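Why run this: before we spend reagent on co-expression, it is cheaper to look at a predicted model of the complex and decide which construct boundaries make sense. The entries below are exactly what would go into the expression plan.
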Amino acid sequence: VRILVIEDERKVASLIAAGLTEQGWAVEICGNGDDGLRLATAENFDALVLDIMLPGRDGLSLLRKLRSEHSPVPVILLSARGDVNERVEGLEIGADDYLAKPFSVIELVARIRAIVRRRTGDSLTVLTFADLSLNLHQRTVTRGEKLIELTSREFALLETFLSSPGRVLSRTFLSQKVWGYQFDPETNVIDVAVRRLRGKIDEGFSPKLIQTVRGVGYSIASE
Amino acid sequence: MKYPLTLRGRIALSAAAVTALALIILAAGTWIYVYLEDLEAIDEHLVGETHELRADLAEGDMDEDEFSEDPFELRLGLAAIKGDGTVLGITPNFSTAVVDQGTTNLGFSIQADVDSRWRIYSTRQDDVLIVIGHNLEEFDDVLSDLASIQILLVPFVSLLTAWISWLVAGRSLAPIRKAAAAAASIGVTDLTARLPTVLSDDEIGQFTHVLNGMLDRIEKNYLQAKRFAGDASHELSTPLTIIKGELEKLVAKNNLPELAEQGIISAQQEVDRMHQIIDQLLLLARFDAGKASADYAPINLSSLLREMTEDVDLLSEKYALTVTHEVASDIWVQGDSGQLYRLLLNLFTNATKYNRPQGSIGYHLRRENGHAQFLISNSGPEILEADAERVFERFFQADESHATRGNGLGLSLCREIAHAHGGTIRLVSSTEKATDFLVELPVVSAA
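The model came back. Tokens follow.
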């Protein structure tokens, strides 16, 4: 898997690159729109991470040009504006996803993985870890042979864990991802939700899959 | 200083008072002048008549004719009396009572009998007392007529002045009234409104001009301040992405020294807080720019609220709160589900956070007069009446000590969301036992 990151902020670009490399993917970085377009048309990439504000040709115009040349490469837009209209415009002209800054690199990597899998025909309807599996279409969860009933938030929480196996996910990340809302640290919504999820998928099973990383957050991993 | 009257009323009243005072002084002066002038003329006349009579008396040719009634001088009465009381002659229009009074003091005097008043001039010539009187009936009539006219005129002219100054003041003050009404509407709707331009170069024209200039500056500053929050948040998002990414990278490393790990976790929490503030500021900026309500569609508020039952349950567990609710079905509003969700979740979070252990939360959704009414009540600390409006201000903290932390943007965002949806949010009541917030949104028919 080869990914092109077109982003003029060097530090942001290298952080993204580090996150992607960690997945075992090859990464190319480019700092301006014109070179980005040249690279994207000349070479084959599995996905593009494209910042909207760029020196030279901006992200949206680059994407338009790319689509007018019938390039099917999946594109994730990055924007500092977080504007609904901009998001709609981006998706309309052919972006596959849109992420507003400040974003979490973990989130970006998870989204790219989803896109790449979709593209390589790897159906993403079932997420699995150890003997736990989650079916996105049927919205069912099984551990071993046993069917487990989850509430909608528990389901979304588990889906988030299974999208980034082994990764430590912070409370804020989970809060944003599952509720689209950042709960006040005063409330312990995430801890309560994780404890309940744990009660359903780990209680009476071995090994325990949901791990607490003290102070940081939670992850799904074998003990 | 507080006046019971409007400026217009005061102008009219003082104009009337000044006019009345001036008229009273003028009337009194005129009356006294006429009185004195007329009396002087009468006196001269009497002196003249006296000289004639004296001359006749001296020459001794005084006869009965002298005292017969002169049809042309009915006002004049003549009498001549000798020292022994013998009446030498008296005109019939003259009353003896008046003459008798006149004999007691020489010179000018005013004497009256039952039906008339007289100006008397008495002189003595040798043994004869000459009394000449001028009937004052006409004189009195003239003066009393004058007084009546004056008495009528003073209030009439004063009222007229009051009325005219009322009109003039009203007309001159009209631009100020309009300006006040216009100024009152500015800010409620938008800051671009200006006072109606007055073309005249008088005080009012200058006043509106100055006010409009001031409004220009306020609008400019306001827009700058408004844009600033959005721009600043925007500029902060890239560095924040970097900090977030660096911290995530570090946290993923195992075997960090404990001190470093604690530092990183703490920094991460603060970055998240900043992220949240920036998020809310950006959303507020979008509301300010009026862009947040562009894609509104019918939303089933009842379903949205039911989906949140689990969240309320998760939120309330920590404090072991009792939750009661009552949600009417199929209440639809025009809006954005993300924003409405945020509004409700903010209220639920507050209801949980500002509560006591084993306290309670109650909420209901009802349809009332074409409005969806969402009422949320909790057993939180009392919000003082003075703060009832201020809790919706940006960065307002009821608790100055920040004992319970929040960034003070939550409720202001709730209000923006409610307003963008054509509705309202307010603090209905707050006592030591319960605090109630009410959200009202206009209902629409189902999609």
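Chain A has a mean pLDDT of 89. The interface with chain B takes residues 9, 11-12, 15-16, 18-19, 80-85, 88, 100-106, 151-153, 167-168, 170, 172, 179-189, 192-193, 196, 215-216 of chain A (CB under 8 Å). Bring this page to Monday's planning discussion.
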